[in-house]
Write a structure and sequence with these properties.
296 residues, mainly alpha, ABC transporter involved in vitamin B12 uptake, BtuC, 80% helix
Length: 296
């Protein structure tokens, strides 16, 4: 595959992985938890380096997933003990991210990772970091990692689709019929952490947050069915990656930034033109109701 194709494939995989997980965050009103975890994984990356003295992907993955789960756990504990959920996310997010930045500056200053790299990422370098087995180059490591994460997410969603669906829409009913809501919650947090970590080094926190929230929010405006929402969200993620790349190429701009901006533009289109939930559709409905009321 060409250099351009690898970048497009990486962006599309990020869009699909993040878009599908983001649907459940939107339904559970936990969208900003994605922002928190996408930043606190920096602590996991630095911690993994300090323990292993290696920048190998497996150590980074384990460390980041553990910190991602820890973030979700701390937020849950604070929320259950009287702290508003948005405040809980803000406290945990800033505290753990700040600890990660301090550890990075004090103990890991000699490695190629820094806070700017973590936030912005650099997708243009993806094609050069390839997976080599027995002297054979098999393509970028990021593509293999994201492909594996996508497979894991699809398998988990397929196996626990009913439980995730019911606990997302009606937690009280889920508890009443015996669904382990807490287990499902942490299953989703594990998927979120794994997805965030897989995309983090490739595209940076900003694009990860955009892809986790915006495609799912766009799909939410376009359908009332969960399965359709998952498919539309993945499609919006792919479209954002492809269009964003070519926009960045034309204007010589940040690829990750252009992809995130494109996802925002697609959301604006859905916000105004969605057949059922769009601003124009609601205005026409109000106008129709007003005309009917006057006539009667």
């Amino acid at each position: 595959m060409s250099y351009e194709a690898w970048i497009l494939l990486t962006g599309a995989l990020v869009g699909i992985c993040c878009g599908m997980v983001g649907c459940f965050l939107i339904l559970r009103k936990m969208a900003m938890l994605a922002d928190a975890i996408s930043h606190t994984v920096l602590l996991g990356i630095v911690g993994a380096y300090l323990v292993s003295q290696s920048m190998e992907g497996i150590y980074m993955l384990i460390g980041s997933v553990l910190v991602g789960m820890l973030t979700a756990f701390f937020v849950q504990i604070l929320s259950e003990n009287g702290v508003q959920s948005d405040a809980a996310i803000g406290v945990v997010f800033t505290s753990l991210f700040a600890v990660g930045v301090i550890l990075l500056s004090v103990f890991a200053g000699r490695i190629h990772l820094d806070a700017d790299h973590a936030l912005m990422g650099e997708i243009t370098f993806i094609p050069w970091d390839v997976l080599v087995i027995n002297g054979m180059e098999l393509g970028p490591k990021a593509v293999w990692i994201l492909g594996f994460v996508l497979l894991v997410n699809i398998v988990l969603i397929t196996l626990f689709y009913k439980e995730i669906k019911i606990s997302s829409f009606d937690p009280e009913m889920a508890v009443a019929i015996g669904i382990p809501v807490v287990v499902i919650h942490y299953l989703l947090m594990g998927m979120l952490s794994l997805t965030t970590v897989a995309a983090f080094d490739s595209v940076g926190a900003i694009l990860v947050v955009a892809m986790l929230i915006v495609p799912a929010a766009t799909a939410y405006l376009l359908t009332d069915r969960l399965l359709s929402m998952l498919i539309i969200s993945a499609g919006v993620g792919i479209l954002s990656a492809v269009i964003g790349y070519f926009v960045a190429y034309q204007i010589n701009a940040s690829i990750a930034g252009a992809m995130a901006t494109t996802s925002g533009f697609l959301f604006c289109l859905a916000f105004f033109f969605s057949p059922k939930h769009g601003l124009i559709a609601k205005w026409l409905l109000r106008k129709k109701i007003g005309s009917t009321t006057q006539e009667s």
